[in-house]
Sequence to fold (511 residues):
Amino acid sequence: MISVSGLEKSFGRLHVLRGVDFEVGRGSIFALLGSNGAGKTTVVKILSTLLDADAGQASVAGFDVRTQAARVRESLSLTGQFAAVDEVLSGRENLVLIARLRHLANPRRVADELLERFGLTDAAGRKVAGYSGGMRRRLDIAMSLIGNPPVVSLDEPTTGLDPEARREVWQAVRQLAAQGTTVLLTTQYLDEAEQLADRIAILHEGRIIQNGTLAELKQLLPPAKVEYVEKQPTLEDVFLTLVGSTEQS
Amino acid sequence: MTTSTAIGIPRTHFVSDTAVLTRRSLTHIARSFDTIVTTAVTPIAMMLLFVYVFGGAISAGTGPYVNYLLPGILLITVASGISYTAFRLFQDMQGGIVERFRSMPIARSAALWAHVLTSLVANLISIALVIGVALLMGFRSGAGVRAWLGVAGILVLFTLALTWVAVIPGLTASSVAGASAFSYPLIFLPFISSAFVPTATMPGPVRWFAEYQPVTSIVNTLRALLAQQSVGADVWVALAWCVGILIAAFVAAVAIYRRKAA
Fold:
């Protein structure tokens, strides 16, 4: 669904991408892993036609990002690094707005279905300004799904979220892939890639230095040694137990 | 209107997209109606101050001073109103929602036009409020429908011109203060014009500036229309300024918007 080859991009003298290649298969979750400033967002912006590449090819759903930008914008939905929601409007109004911009026949019904699916029905009429971080993110992802784009790109979807909200977002992403949407996920959290991704590519100094399934990546290191370690609960386990969090269905 | 790009397919719906986004920002101003009231408060306060405090000492021809003053006050209203346009656009740029719109299959300039049309509506409401107060203060005009249409036309053109000026800081500012500070000089421009006192009383260089800056010709045109006098050459100078500023600001704003994209 996504094909990238030889992608290069510089900002002034800063050579951010130095030849990036990867492929993402239909209906899979592909994680682009890298530290801050590795160029993950640049890749996403090129794929969503917000930026032009200096060199190389990129296509989404078979459409070239440079020559068929309008088609690409119909096929790929972007969820940027900061939840791009309208704070003054209610959750439902945000969804209706995007549905209208996608020229759908029945914006209200589309909105109601997504509110239901993302567990936002109770908060639907409230202004987004009063939403928690996790709710905003879920709304943001719901907005990206309007019009059923075959590809959704999530740029660091859990940065700045608390552990509970992260789990809510992970759940939403899994649901997406289960319904056949191709997901391009960028993250700097290793556990996030480990939890969600079918394939993981590591972007480092402008190139993909490794690309494979989690099992393949693990094989790059010497075989596991067997050690007996007492299983201690992590602070996250403790926190989630204390605040009584259960995974949202 | 359907636009098409060179390659691909391209069904962007400029008019319907702009309408949807305009409705969105009109909802914003409806939910913060105080911004419209604040826009009107400063000009109304100035009008009260000038009519009831300074007015007695100002000789500006026959008729009530409020009649003389109102056109300049209306321009001040627009100049303060557009700072909210810059503010709203700045908020959108910061929040990432503009990026979301740009990554969607919608007409790219629709996001800007929506703000411009919203600015027009908000300013016209503020102007109506100010005229309402002026009427209570004794403003009267015997102008007919055509003259009022002329007044409305010039105010709309002036608002559009200044709104496109406001789009520039809205797109480029790096802080909220920066996004709205540009309007202060615009608010004070009418003071060095024929808005409050006839330019003939001013010393040489000041008078020269006052007579050749845009506000004077616009104020004189509005005043003549409201007083049922001949507008003379002022109307052409006023229109030339408005259209000139409009075109220059529009071209600059659209170029900046495109560059921000790339």
Q: What stands out?
A: Residues 133 and 161 of chain A are 6 Å apart (CA to CA). The beta strands of chain A are 2-11, 14-24, 29-33, 55-60, 63-64, 76-79, 151-155, 182-187, 199-204, 207-212.
